[in-house]
Amino acid sequence: MNIDLLKALCSIHAPSGEERPLRDFLIRYFESNEKKFQTKPELIYGDDFQDCLMVKFGEPRTAVFAHMDSIGFTTRYDNQLVPIGGPEVKTGYDLVGEDSLGPIQCKLKVDNDHNIFYDFGRGIDRGTSLTFQCNFRETEDYVQSCYMDNRLGVFTALKMAEKIEDGLLVFSCWEEHGGGTVPFLIKYAYEKFNIRNALISDITWVTEGVHHGKGVAISMRDRNIPRQSFVRKIIEIAESNKIKYQLEVEGAGSSDGREIQTSPYPIDWCFIGAPEDNVHSPDEKVHKGDIQSMIELYRVLLKEL
């Protein structure tokens, strides 16, 4: 598996609220790699979509949602940091960003009261975003980096789209920090294309019941409960196509699926993603076999749903 594209995605600075650099990367990718796709992609973006992007193939029935943003930090006053989303914090983590005075590479510091700060040779402009410095590692079985969540979900969407005839890719914003773009995206998808199925291409966690190397995780529920007849249809498709998978059942956690479920539109949804270790840290780790089964399942689902 060639993962150079995944490495490039993980290195892009795009925390919640600053997704534009990743959106623009994706626009350039689709425009310059049009011949890679079996069906010509139609790009949909602009002021009415803020920093989001939709990509239409053929006559879509199913939409694949992949959020572009990552967790991170915002500089406040007196070297203070405010979390973006829920990053792991540990003294010594390397952070990067850029302000009016130029590029920044600094250290994260945590005091005894669990307050977080940056350690840098000068003050950083207020409101500057900082993210984990990318240290992308690959072994025979694993890839490891910051921001596998959710650059791997984006990568999966790009790879599965090479082989599909009909489908809609939806690259959303703000998922890590409360969401907010899915309501207008799902409205457009339903009213413009009559989309009735939504798949959430995101990354889940390794737990006592979900393990590395056991296949992509099909989530039967998290904090939210999708319609189970739809989830079981997905399981049946995975079974009939002999795709390696495992079932996830959780009582917490959420995704873009929450906003789809609470929308006024009759759209079924299911979260399907590879499990990772070291969540929301610089060392997120995913098994290559789980990535492969994730791509395979999405390709099949876009054909059969």
Characterization of this structure:
- 44% of the residues are buried.
- The protein has an 8-stranded mixed beta sheet, with helices on both faces. The chain has a 6-stranded antiparallel beta sheet with strand order 5-4-9-6-7-8, with no helix packed on it. A 5-stranded mixed beta sheet has the order 10-11-19-18-14.
- The protein has helices spanning 4-10, 20-32, 148-161, 182-193, 228-240, 256-261, 288-304, and strands at residues 42-44, 53-57, 62-67, 72-75, 81-84, 94-99, 102-110, 116-119, 129-132, 137-138, 142-145, 167-172, 197-201, 204-205, 216-221, 245-249, 268-273, 275-277, 284-287.
- The protein contains 7 helices and 19 strands.
- It folds into 2 domains: 4-70 and 137-304, Aminopeptidase (3-Layer(aba) Sandwich); 72-132, Elongation Factor Tu (Ef-tu), domain 3.
- The chain is α+β, with helices and mostly antiparallel strands.
Which percent range fits the helix content? 25-40%
Gross geometry: globular
Strand order of the largest sheet: 1-2-12-3-13-17-15-16
Major beta-sheet overview: 8 strands, mixed
Low-confidence stretches: none
In CATH, the homologous superfamily of the largest domain goes by the name Zn peptidases
CATH topology of the largest domain: Aminopeptidase
CATH architecture of the largest domain: 3-Layer(aba) Sandwich
Q: What is the overall number of helices?
A: 7
Q: Would you list the SSEs in sequence order as H and E?
A: HHEEEEEEEEEEEHEHEEEHEHEEEH
Number of domains: 2
Tally of strands: 19
